[in-house]
Amino acid sequence: MGWLLCAPAVLVILLVTAYPIGYAVYLSLRRYDLRFPADTAFVGLANYGTVLSSGLWWQALKITMIITVVSVAIEFVLGLALALLMHRTLVGRGLVRTVILIPYGIVTVVAAFGWRFAWTPGTGYLAGLFGDAAPLTSQTWGVAVIILAEVWKTTPFMALLLLAGLALVPEELLRAAQVDGAGAWARLRRVTLPLMKPAILVALLFRTLDGFRIFDDIYVLTAGAHDTRSVSILGYDNLFTALNLGVGSALSVLIFGVVALIAVVFVRGFGTAAPGQETDHR
Amino acid sequence: MTLEARSARSVLVRPAHAALLRSAAVRSAAVRSAAVRTVVVRTVVVGSATMLVATCGSRPAGGPPALRWYVYNESSGSFAAAAADCSASSGGAYRISIDVLPNDADGQRQQLVRRLAAEDTSMDILALDVTWTPEFAEAGWIEAFDDATAQRITTGTLPVATRTGTWANHLYAAPLNTNVQLLWYRKDLVPTPPRTWDEMLAAARGLAARGRPHLVEVQGAQYEGLTVLFNTLVASAGGSILSADGSRVRLGAPAEQAVAAIRALADSPAADPSWSNQREDDNRLVFESGAAAFQLNYPFVYPSARHNAPGLAPEIGWAQWPGLVAGQPSHPTIGGYNLAVSSYSAHPDLARRAIECLRGRANQIRTAIRGGLAPTLEALYTDRELIDGGYPFAAAVGEALRNASVRPRTPAYQTVSLQISDALSPPRSASVGRLDGLRTAIADALESKGLVP
User: Fold this and answer.
1) Model confidence over B304-339: pLDDT tens digits?
2) Residue of B138, B450, B451 with shortest CB distance to A36
3) Average pLDDT along chain A
4) CB-CB: which of A39, A54, A137 is closest to B450?
5) Are B293 and B189 in contact (CB under 8 A)?
6) Pairing of strands A30-31, A41-42
7) DSSP state of A136
8) For residues B23 and B17, what is the distance between their CA atoms, to the nearest angstrom?
9) What 3-state class would DSSP assign to A30?
10) Chain B residue with Cα closest to A54
11) CATH numbers and ranges of domains, chain A
12) Chain A touched by B168 (CB under 8 Å)
């Protein structure tokens, strides 16, 4: 009876997630190019061989990793600072929280266009700030601007998740630590952060997964030129410009695999509680 | 139709009225409820009758079938004017409505392909970039013209433009407009235009030594423009990128000569410092600022200079693209758009007729004068109406088109082009040694293997 009641929901989930994923896996095992519709055949793992033996994939993976790690690290530090600020604010609490959330409320593509114009000589106020005439035309500067746009945009999200974690820290524990002579830094490191750990891990997991799938910022800022493409941009180019559904699907499946791996490492390795699961820190 | 619907309604309502009359004898409450019921019945009947009218015909009764033309937004409005004129002159046979595609070629192609892959029947006439014909024809997305129509279209049309619309010996796309680069130079700095690439670089070096404006403005960013530059250089050196049938990679000695020409410019003082990032419009802006002596670009730069740099405009001369082999003409790459009939169109015959009208003489002259797009009818290059109407370089463009080359003709063109611009970018690091890698990458692309950068 229980299964019967679940059935409609399970069916819908199968329809909207399992089917597309299964179809992508199926496509990735075929030679399937929209431009040669008559020329489709089962090719086994050949498409995966193509992707994994291409320097482009490893280059894109490296850039994606750099963007993910650097931006998540910066977001965590800034996000924690903002969360502490929001937590301790006494006056105008609502206003402070709203102001901090504004970047997160702006459409990513719109914000990215703002950054692009700002960093383009002739239209922007930031171009030429660091001596480079056109920052978006070199790999190092391009990646730096992409990370900046990403950090600006998603730090509020990180702050919000961490703020929820701060609420878990009981006030009396902090007072007791203070009485025992712990300074502000010691209280943060020894009391606050350990108690917040579940929230921190969830926040880092969410942001790492998001960061790894970065697409829109790069698409607008550099369109992947000058070797700034992420794996998602590479997948898009192969699927939508080259119309090569076979190789493109293999790329997508590999991206899915890496994302799954990140999630497993976080959940198994660091003991992140999956959302909805009971944590033992309550 | 409307009359039929109305009579149908009265027939259906009559029993309800009868019911009303019967129940009137019983009680007033019953009368009220019956009246309510009648109103409900009437509404339902009227509603379904309206729906019947709506589904019976998607077009207004008696109106001509609508042909939907998928094309980018031509800013001067000459495409819209052509569509209106052709609809009017068709004598009620068809009405062309325009569906606007994005302005960049990649965006246009993506939208067209997505609809065509889904076998969308709402598309009739497609505006295709000259490089897409093999891809769309091979995939079965566009229909070849029948022999009689093809004969009418190709007669009087520039042969090189016809070649871009032809695949497997069939005409799939009718040339709408074309485009070709000229050498634009400063008459006050350069008394006689250089005829070869080396002469141009030598003249630039001379100007640089005298401290005069000396830059050569040409496209160098990693995009289609770099592929066009390479194709022009390879063709001008007497070679080609692919074999004529598009099945094998060529890139022999002429390709090495082309790479050497790119490097010669990169290593000379004539190279713009931001060459590796320049597209057509960046070149135009630098030339208009007066910092350059030469510019390899499309004719749109001339009206633009007259508007933006009126002091400079009288000093601007034009000549043929510099050659790579002394005594041989250059072979600049042609661009432009062709018109094709979608394989899924419901009105292919009308679409073919409309295409013949849209690319007719009057429409081509209007597009050339208003929009600056070069015509594909050969006779127009000596037509006073066009030349006096605001196209003074018609003779030079006509000559360039007679010598023009086409880009590699293969269904995998998009991938081939991405590989070329990737291998040559930035121009300063282009080397003959990289050609081997490029040959392999193109060979893979032809078999739809490998990743696309």
Assistant:
1) 898 899 999 999 999 999 999 999 999 999 999 999
2) B138
3) 87
4) A54
5) yes
6) antiparallel
7) G
8) 10
9) strand
10) B451
11) 17-269 (1.10.3720.10)
12) no
Token digits for B93? Answer: 């046979």
Residues of B in contact with A238 (CB under 8 A): 451-452
Contact B72, B101 (CB under 8 A): yes
Q: What is the three-state SS of chain B?
A: CHHHHHHHHHHHHHHHHHHHHHHHCCCHHHHHHHHHHHHHHHHHHHHHHHHHHHHHCCCCCCCCCEEEEEEECCCCCHHHHHHHHHHHHCCCCCEEEEEEECCCHHHHHHHHHHHHHCCCCCCCEEEEECCCHHHHHHCCCEECCCHHHHHHHHCCECHHHHHHHEECCEECCEEEEEECCEEEEECCCCCCCCCEHHHHHHHHHHHHHCCCCCEEECCCCCCHHHHHHHHHHHHHCCCCCECCCCCCECCCHHHHHHHHHHHHHHCCCCECCCHHHCCHHHHHHHHHHCCEEEEEECCCHHHHHHHHCCCCHHHEEEECCCECCCCCCCCCECEEEEEEEECCCCCHHHHHHHHHHHCCHHHHHHHHHHHCCEECEHHHHHCHHHHHCCCCCHHHHHHHHHCCECCCCCCCHHHHHHHHHHHHCCHHHCCCCHHHHHHHHHHHHHCCCCCCC
ipTM reported for the complex surpasses 0.90: no
pLDDT band for B369, please (50, 70, 90 cuts). Answer: confident
Asked if B168 and B245 count as a contact pair (C-beta separation under 8 A), the reply is no
The pTM of the full predicted model, rounded to 2 decimals, is 0.78
Residue B7: pLDDT band by 50, 70, 90 thresholds?
very low
Tens of pLDDT, residues A43-90: 999 999 989 988 889 999 999 999 999 999 999 999 999 999 888 887
Which tens digits make up the pLDDT trace of B57-67?
A: 344 556 899 99
Query: What residues of chain A lie within 8 A of the CB of B110, using their CB?
Result: 240-241
Question: Looking at CA atoms only, how far is residue B411 from chain A in angstroms?
Answer: 7
